[in-house]
Predict the structure.
Amino acid sequence: MTTKPVNQKAWWLVLPVFICVAFSAILPLMTVVNYSVQDIISPERRVFVGTEWFAAVMRDSDLHAALLRQLAYSCSVLLIEIPLGIALALAMPATGWKSSAVLVIVALSLLIPWNVVGTIWQIFGRADIGLFGAALQKLGIEYSYTGSPRDAWLTVLLMDVWHWTPLVALLCFAGLRSIPDAYYQAARIDGASKLAVFRYIQLPKMRGVLMIAVLLRFMDSFMIYTEPFVLTGGGPGNSTTFLSQYLTQKAVGQFDLGPAAAFSLIYFLIILLVCFILYNWMQRVGTADKTEAGHG
């Protein structure tokens, strides 16, 4: 019996992808690694320092505060946007022209560039000319995103919810539309309530898109920079200075390329670690639900 030889020429089609990844990711990453172990005194003079910058960054109290601030912000984004996106998807019309119109309206905020979003909310939150700020002032609520750290933090969070919840809603809507009608027909025959249909049919079938939504929103929120930079500049104080702004201040503002490179690698590893934990947790929940359904 002879085996047919495998054609390996298809690997040449993948070569352009490897080249693009090398230039866009691998080479810059290697450059950052190189900077993280050197003290760059001048373009011509560099001193190898090993892990000194990593140790210095890990001892930085400002970094610890920015990390806690970032984790609180990203967790708040997930806790608000995921349930809200699911609710919007469930409320959207399933078919017809109304469905198309609602999809277009919901997706409008996703088309706005990040710096424009910050500018919109910068105007929107002003007490003199902004609808949101003026409305709160008329209601007797003291509000100033430029003077109050709490108001600034909540405004950045609200801005992110307005901007990115539609993405979660669209992903969930696609997941809902992929559920065969046979499941709903069986639920109607069994007399299942809307809550039971959501718990045992819709939510399990949306698990894949929800995993994508959680990972996307976590990574995006953990790397947020443009919107708070335009809106508040990281203030008042450091209330909206997240990790990306802290990194920019190190690299551009203070020109500490060594510590900035070391921190960027730590930043990268934190994102990978948290995404890995989230992915495995959602996988285990999905496996547990399938086992429970099988026993039922």
User: Anything to note?
Assistant: The chain is about 75% helix and 5% strand. The chain has a mean pLDDT of 85. The CA atoms of residues 211 and 282 lie 7 Å apart. Residues 257-295 form the longest helix (39 residues).
